[in-house]
Every structure is written in structure tokens, then in C-alpha cells.
Amino acid sequence: MLLRNTPERYGVIAQALHWIVVFLLIGQVTVGKIAHQMPDGFGKLVLLARHKSVGITILALAALRLAWRLANRPPPPPSMPRWQLLAARANHAALYLLLFAMPLTGWMMSSASNYPVSWFGLVQLPDLVTPDRGFKELMQGVHRTLANTLIALAALHVAAALKHQFLDRDGLIWRMLPWRGR
What we know:
mainly alpha; 68% helix
């Protein structure tokens, strides 16, 4: 498989970045929901530390993914009504925005809580804001709302891909899968 995108398919780099982020996000949502239900204690702190580290990893991968996308034009979309094309572009833009906003709001929430953010204990990141209980609570609500928005937009993205595969039968889904189909 080619590293770069072609007019027919995404290249292996774009595919790898896409699927790695997808699986990390599934884990993040799961861990976030589990941690939210746990009582305060050491186990919760350990789980949240991993959650933060993976969030920072997603932030770095999102930056790499966006840079790769800007340098490697995606394959053109199949023929579809203009409203669908605009909806797809809006959904993609929102998903990219959330890939940045989710880790940043989590990082700000930790900073405002006076809990440091480190990347797997190897590198401690600087605080983005000073400790502030009110701002922490605001960021907590924003982070949760963004997570729910991300889940909804990702579900819409999957539904649209499945619609293209099974109703339109235009082969769109195969462009992002590592194996060839049709």
C-alpha cells in the first residue's frame, strides 16, 4: 500500500492515524466514564493519569493527522448531493476541532484542579491555567459536553459511512480500510 493518498484511496499513513485515534478515543470514553463513577482514591488517580496521558497522545496525533491531511489531499468524494457533501465536511471539521478541544479542556481542568499533567510519567507538562475551582468546574462541564458531542458526531460519521457502503454502494468506506474491498 502507498504511504500517501491517491485519488482512489487514503494512504497507509492517513489510515493508520485514523484508526489509531479511533481506538484511542473508544478507550478514552470508556476510561472517562469508569473514572467518573469511581470513588476518590489511588485507583481513580492512576486511571485518570493514564486518561490524561492518552489524551495528550491524541492531541499530538491530531496535530500530526491535520498536518498530514494538509500535505496530502484526501481522495475526492463520490458523487453525492451538495447538502451531503457540506454535511460531511462540517462533520469532519467538527471532529478535528474536538480532537484538539477535548485534550485541551481536560488539560485545563487538571491545571485548574492543581493536578499536574504528565505524559506517561515521562514528561510533566506545564499548567495551562492557574488553580481555580470555578474554572475547573466550568472545564469539567465543557469537557463532558464535548465528549458527548464527539460521541454523537462519531456515530453520525459511522452511520454515513455505512449508508454509503450499503445503500449507495459507492465504495466510499473502502478508501479508509487497510484492505481492499468492493
